[in-house]
Amino acid sequence: HRLTKEEMKDRPNLVILGTGWASLCLLRKLYTDRYNVTIVSPRNYFLFTPLLPGTTTGTTESRSIMEPIRKYCRRSDADDVTFIEAECLQVDPVKKTVKCYDNSAVKGEVSEFELPYDQLVMGVGAESATFGIPGVKENACFLKEISDTRSIRDRMIDCFETAGYPGQPDAEIDRLLHFVIVGGGPTGVEFCAELNDFITNDVKKAFPKHLTDRCRVTLVEALPHILTVFDKNIIDHVEKKLQSSPTTKIWTQTAVTGVKEREMIVRDAEKKERSVPYGMLVWATGNAPRPVTQKLIQSIGPEVQNVRRGLVVDEYFRVKGADGIWAIGDCSVTPLAPTAQVASQQGRYLGRLFNDISEDLHQKKQGQMNDQEFTADLKKKPLFKYRHMGTLAYVGDKSAVFQIKDADNKTTTSEGLATFLLWRSAYLSKCLSIRNRVLVAFDWTKASIFGRDVSRG
Ligand code: FAD
Ligand code: NAD
């Protein structure tokens, strides 16, 4: 049922935080004429994260994996969506407001504001975990945002250019051309793969041999193996594959315990610490909750919010202990892994659920329905069902790995060129627009014909 003009005036205020996988997939399903929808996010675009590792080396261009959020906002007057580019600093679950701040370079007279909400969706994702290890924030590169891909590329090429200075001492060349990746999860492995491809296919052609011969890549993992989400045969295959590149070494059972400007401290399996010089260090050790998520967990209290990893939700993604707050994607805690696949399905589910319960939420706002009645109605709605499509990862040199478990927990795996083609076609089809699909396909073709650019900036 579509709301009448009269009903529209009193539509519930739905505030959505974030423009990532969870929030955008929700928005795309939502009948926006049933709510006053406001989206708040520090970036006015969606980022297709699976292709982020390749963007560091220019396999894909940054604009090809970005999708402007404004495209999804302007519909018609009735179902217009308001977007505000700001960072939410704090949620007040009692007053039902969000406090936001303009963290961009250009500031006007107003750079802080408060928004009231009836319903709030937390889709703020997670930040890179540093575990409080000294020097990581100050000295490491990360791989989470589009700006990170530029920093990594800039730093890497700069290392090569600086290593080529006349009179540069040998030890300094070795330091500058030592590229370290900390964390052997999918992010670290995919970045390592892209880096190997770039060095082998492009850097070696462009830079003098006496430099490229000395370039080393080290993947450091605290556990006995990398890619622990995969089956043993895949792990063995990937470890062999990455180390088959003469430049690459994997140090397992080695934890990085400190990062200085030019060296890192590692602790090996024998608990011995030593210092290792590096030119560029990329930190990819998984997720930690963002400050806004942490503050909300604290303000609700530890009786219900007792997991430090993120927001504890019920089976409908309602944040436990808070009225009118929902959480999806990497900022929520569920038994599922924090992946785009999960976040997008949760977003789509919640979008459909909001369509389904719009009248109830409308009545709740008008005081015509109490919490018990609302919950009783909600319990009649279908539950979220996750459909796992398998896990894919690029491992370099036109090879990828794939793994899927069936209903009987039987695992099927594949690897190699055919899986690489599957990886490419799967992610191409997952791009959210035809424009992005065309741009990504064009980038891949361009890189394979002309190679990747090795200039800085
Ligand atoms: P995000 O997509 O991170 O979106 C969070 C949004 O919230 C962003 O728009 C952000 O700007 C915004 N935000 C942040 N702080 C605030 C704030 N204070 N107020 C308001 N808004 C805020 N998963 C896969 O399934 N397959 C893959 O191949 C894959 N590859 C990956 C590769 C890399 C390099 C990385 C880093 C991740 C990859 N993932 C992959 C994981 C996947 O990206 C995440 O699980 C997914 O992005 C989670 O979606 P989300 O919406 O919860 O968070
Ligand atoms: P992760 O948590 O999967 O892996 C991080 C790794 O870093 C772990 O193996 C951990 O043991 C290691 N580590 C932690 N501290 C360390 C230290 N001090 N020294 C050395 N090693 C250390 O993190 P991720 O790879 O960033 O992935 C985050 C999420 O995103 C996961 O759910 C992942 O599945 C998803 N993701 C998926 C894909 C894909 O499907 N292709 C790609 C990227 C990310």
Q: Any chance you could write out the topology, listing elements then pairs?
A:
Blueprint: H1 5-9, E1 13-17, H2 21-29, E2 36-41, E3 45-47, H3 52-55, E4 66-68, E5 81-85, E6 87-92, E7 97-101, E8 112-116, E9 119-122, E10 126-128, H4 136-139, E11 141-142, H5 146-163, H6 170-176, E12 178-182, H7 186-206, H8 209-212, E13 216-220, H9 232-243, E14 248-251, E15 255-259, E16 263-267, E17 273-277, E18 280-283, E19 287-289, H10 291-300, E20 311-312, E21 325-327, E22 332-333, H11 340-356, H12 358-365, H13 371-378, E23 391-394, E24 400-405, E25 411-416, H14 417-430, H15 434-450
Parallel strand pairs: 1-2, 1-9, 2-5, 9-21, 11-18, 12-13, 12-18, 13-14, 20-22
Antiparallel strand pairs: 3-4, 6-7, 7-8, 10-19, 15-16, 16-17, 23-24, 24-25
The structure holds flavin-adenine dinucleotide and nicotinamide-adenine-dinucleotide (NAD).
Walk me through the structure:
It is built from 15 helices and 25 strands. With 457 residues, it is of the alpha/beta class. Helices cover 35% and strands 23% of the residues. The radius of gyration is 24 Å and the shape is elongated. The N and C termini lie far apart (53 Å). Strands 5-2-1-9-21 form a 5-stranded parallel β-sheet, with no helix packed on it. The chain folds into 2 domains: 172 residues, 3-Layer(bba) Sandwich (FAD/NAD(P)-binding domain); 211 residues, FAD/NAD(P)-binding domain, CATH 3.50.50.100. Helix 2 runs parallel beside helix 11 and helix 5 packs antiparallel against helix 6. The site of flavin-adenine dinucleotide has 33 residues, from helix 2, strand 2, helix 3, strand 6 and helix 11.
